[in-house]
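Running log. JK asked me to keep both predictions on one page so they can be read side by side. First protein, sequence followed by its tokens:
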Amino acid sequence: MDLDAAFESLLDVIMSSSFSSMLNMVGGRDALNPLKSPFVEKMRDYFQEQFAKSGLQGQIQDALKNALDDEAIRNKVAELIDHRLDQMTPQMV
């Protein structure tokens, strides 16, 4: 997860808000750069805690495993083909 990009997005929101004029008096966007490292660290800790606590990481891994299962894909394609063939009449063929 690119938390540097998340911080940049946060800065975009702040700079487009009513706080931007006040922030411009103390250095503008650059005045918030020292907060980048603590922000990234705190957000990384938060996401790790949330993934561990909710079991979300296991759910994501299971979903990816199932989505990339070759046999399941083959079976689904075979089902679709069989279904379509059942719908076809001799004239259509």
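And the second, directly underneath as requested:
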Amino acid sequence: MNKNIYKLICLLVFISLKVNASEPVFKEHLIFPLQDKHVHSSCIIELPNGGLLCSWFQGSGERKSPDVLIQGARLKKGEPIWSSSFLMADTPKYPDLNPVLFVNKKDELYMFWIVTLAERWEYSLLRYRRAKDFTSDGPPKWTWQDDILLKPGDRFVKQLKKGYSSSSLKNTGINRDFGFLVQDAQSQLVESAKDLRKRQIGWMPRTHALTLPSGRIILPLYSDGFYVGLMAISDDHGATWRASSPIVGIGLNQPSVVRKRDGTLVAFMREEGDLTERVLISESKDDGETWSVAIASDIPNPNTSLEVIALDDGVWVMVYNDITEGRDSLALAISKNEGGSWEQTRNLEKISGGKFHYPSIIQTKNGLIHITYTYQPGINAKKTIKHVQFSQEWVMQSD
């Protein structure tokens, strides 16, 4: 298709959305054309000027591919199409993965990501960049870069041991059904946690950071070495960070954190493996310092990432793969009682053989919901990052 014609079509769609603003809104398009490289783990945010910024990793593979780097693109406020891609970060000869974007209360942009050492997830190094000038064309003008070095203390070991012996975990039936296999793995993890080196590296981001009313920043992290969650906590706008207690469970990964009206934090996590094929849930009553043992919900999960946010009106929205096998169905669900129950599931994608996964979700100041995700419309098909935006009314409609 001629590029000018494509732009005209996008503009007409955009104008029609503004004219019919009272009607349910839905708009979709690809951030860049379908292509052969592996593109994955996107993150979208709204900037102070109303524009959108998205980042993702791109290259020939993941942790074993040194050419993998972080790319980005912009959607300016009032414009119908995304900018051309630009470089956000590249550590020569090492893979850069899992970017997470965040704007603090001082209007500083942070990008968190990992550099994977020795081709092993558990040897990943957590890094960040910071910029004050980040709303103009092209990449942000980074002014600072550093590593985030966390020191989970002795309570990390104690919480692992306590969590594995808790009645809430045993009552899931996993320990009972798998017997000594699970118990042996738990014992090995507790012993590994005593090694300072092992518990200080390998912490990886995936979902959005959360700013609490106190100003505290919570950055959800996970480990493929311990299969637990952890929060990086900052009480000084991101200048320094420390570790929370771990979220203990069986094979949990990639927490997404949302806050209830009463201050309770709820972490929703994928299950690494197929023991329960359900989303795992944990809670914190002390602003992310300590967490309950994660237990399985009734929400299906095929070992894939998900994200949950609270909308301005208090309704929660989850974007997830609503199946127990594969990644060819990506859906939305809403909760009107802060995660007590979920309803109104509506599919964003459902194509047999496709892969639609690793979603990132936000609500912008105008009330619209935006999601980006890895988009591969068939087996061996080319890939891109897709962006959809829609109103809450659209979610409430049936497919």
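Observation for JK regarding the second prediction: The CA atoms of residues 66 and 92 lie 7 Å apart.
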